[in-house]
Amino acid sequence: MKQNLTLSQLKKTSPTFILGNQKSGTTAIAALLAQATDSSVALDNVKAILDSTC
Fold first, then answer.
1. DSSP per residue over 5-47, as a string?
2. Would you say residue 43 lies in a domain?
């Protein structure tokens, strides 16, 4: 049986990946979860990787 985690428990677990299509709200959800758990967030990994290689 899968257990639902509270926000404080989520902060103590391994990284959480939120995936979705463009314009589906995944960036907003990731930002809100990071804010609620006082965690860091990487919102656009592909863009960050491409920008760092230039």
1. PPHHHHHTSS-------TTSSHHHHHHHHHHHTT----S-HHH
2. yes
